[in-house]
# Entry
Amino acid sequence: MVIGIKSLARQSCWIGSLGGLTIASTIAPTVAAERVYVSYAFLQLPIQVSDLERYAQQGQLPPALATYQPYLKPEQLARLRATLQMQVQVSPQNLTYFLGTPLGKNLLQRSSAILQSKTRGANPQALQTALVSAAAEPGGLTVLKVLRKFPEAEMKIDLQQGAKILKQVEGLIRQTDAAIATPRQPSLAASPKPAPL
# Structure
């Protein structure tokens, strides 16, 4: 039996998805991040996740940031809010498949150095679980959803680097989806020639 590239890719995607969803469901966080030590530009501040959510939704600065508002440029605040509002539309299955590829593993390793436990440091497995769980939520993958799914009460995050990583992930997943969806046409040179009569 000959299996096409597209069929093989779909099977690999489903197998990877089942594995990732199994991991995500068995390691569901019993503790979610409540406080984030945010590094943005020159600041490093402890901020409640609920305050970041309010800022993203309503534009109301958290008390920790309001103190520094005179020192922040309006563009910096706008970029912070845009980073918090950024959504990546990806299915948990495609994300799990992508994170299992060499490129995805590399990106996960880099990302876990940016978004990490306050006490344990970088933890790629915890980040993968948080990402896949957040992708399953309605409305797309966001930084705030990943924070809510991360299995630690306190964590550190560099928002500027996080926004760059999310943009890279979105572009790479689009490329992966396009590659899987593109039908492969057999080459005319490779097709068998009819036998002479």
